[in-house]
Design a protein that fits this description.
The protein is an alpha/beta fold and 359 residues long. It has two domains: 199 residues, Rossmann fold (3-Layer(aba) Sandwich); 128 residues, Rossmann fold (3-Layer(aba) Sandwich). Strands 7-6-5-8-9 form a five-stranded parallel beta sheet. Strands 10, 11, 12, 13 and 14 form a five-stranded mixed beta sheet that branches. Strands 1-2 form a two-stranded antiparallel sheet. β1 and β2 form a beta hairpin. α6 packs antiparallel against α7. It is globular, with a radius of gyration of 20 Å. The two termini are 31 Å apart. InterPro entries: ABC_Transporter_SBP (IPR050902), ABC_transptr_periplasmic_BD (IPR002491).
């Protein structure tokens, strides 16, 4: 959400064999496909690693996609990709593409544990924004970023500059309008699934994309099955204390809220992350507070800092949710459009049941 990347060390695990690819994940399991042996992967995943890679690498190029008002053309699958922003990196790792990446940058949280081994294979160019020169030094053939700010002079560089050097780029469609603009529609999980499909197409691994989307759809449906959260109001607090950044209508918190059938108490605000006064929050008195746990160290970033503020501020402590300690903590990265949104659907559904505010 923030323009300035949230900086944190990423977990690094032991390296895995170069032939192992992560193609689907859940909170409890990771489906692995071993693409260099006779194995065709886990039958339940619906993925045949041999037909996926061999067939699509030979056909289907050039690939041309429309992305945020630009036409992106790739003559062949990227072999030297760079990902900017954690959601982009984790998506590529989940699709099993670590051996086609030469760098990642702009981290907000530790990498998901099930991706740590694959992540260890990819050099970290910077925990923040790397310079344009640092990125070009890796001779990338594709650059993929989540946030619009990444493709600006204040971030890494505008997309036009990459194009001038012959480097195709892709930006998450969730950020096409920019973080500061009034949003004209709410994001849904289908936007995430479409992005997965785009990246799987770009890299020539459509079957992996299909399997991942099927897994995510099933998990989201299972998490919300039988959950009655109608009429339950939520407030999503990202950062800052004096005038906090609270989720408006249309970003990832809206995706997650809709998936569990609850209501975002500030869904009438068309900004992604408006600054809202505590007096205005008290006027709406949400049933449950969703607290982002960030590792940057800025004002009100950590969940602990948020809770200390809630319990000491003369206005915030009057909230019903504070008096009854009804809050749910989620990683800050779960509040950005990403694969982690489905994790958040699962965690939110569990939390609402635990708080006994939803059946």
């Amino acid at each position: 959400m923030e323009r300035t990347p949230r900086s944190s060390p990423q977990s690094k695990g032991a390296s895995v064999a170069a032939c192992t690819r992560i193609v689907a994940l859940s909170l409890s399991t990771v489906v692995l496909v071993t693409g260099c042996s006779a194995s065709t992967g886990d039958p339940a995943s619906g993925i045949d690693a041999r037909s996926d890679d061999a067939a699509t690498a030979a056909t289907g190029y050039p690939v041309s996609l429309e992305n945020c008002g630009r036409t992106v053309v790739l003559e062949s699958p990227p072999q030297r990709a760079i990902s900017i922003n954690q959601p982009a990196t984790e998506l590529l790792l989940t699709l099993g593409l670590s051996d086609q990446m030469v760098g990642s940058a702009s981290w907000s949280d530790p990498v998901q544990p099930q991706l740590a081994a694959a992540n260890a294979e990819v050099p970290v160019l910077s925990n923040d924004f790397p310079s344009f020169e640092r990125v070009l030094a890796e001779k990338p053939d594709f650059v993929y970023a989540t946030f619009d700010w990444s493709f600006t002079d204040e971030g890494v560089a505008p997309r036009e500059l990459f194009e001038r050097f012959g480097v195709p780029t892709y930006q998450s469609s969730s950020e096409c309008g920019g973080q500061d603009a009034l949003q004209d529609r709410s994001l849904t999980l289908d936007d995430l699934y479409a992005e997965i499909d785009d990246l799987a197409t770009i890299f020539g691994v459509p079957e992996r994309g299909d399997a991942l989307v099927a897994s995510l759809r099933a998990r989201s449906a299972e998490a919300s099955d039988g959950l009655d959260a109608e009429g339950v109001t939520l407030m999503w607090w990202y950062s800052a204390t004096r005038t906090p950044y609270i989720a408006g209508c249309c970003g990832a918190p809206g995706i997650i809220t809709d998936a569990v059938g609850a209501t975002n108490v500030f869904a009438d605000n068309r900004q992604l992350w408006p600054e809202i006064s505590w007096e205005s929050i008290l006027d709406r008195d949400p049933d449950v507070l969703i607290l982002a746990d960030l590792t940057r160290g800025d004002d009100g970033d950590s969940a602990d800092a948020k809770i200390r503020f809630l319990e000491s501020d003369p206005v915030a402590q009057r909230l019903t949710a504070v008096r009854e300690r009804r809050w749910i903590v989620l990683p800050g990265s779960a509040m950005d459009p990403s694969l982690r949104n489905v994790d958040a659907v699962e965690e939110l559904a569990t939390g609402l049941r635990s708080l006994k505010v939803a059946g």
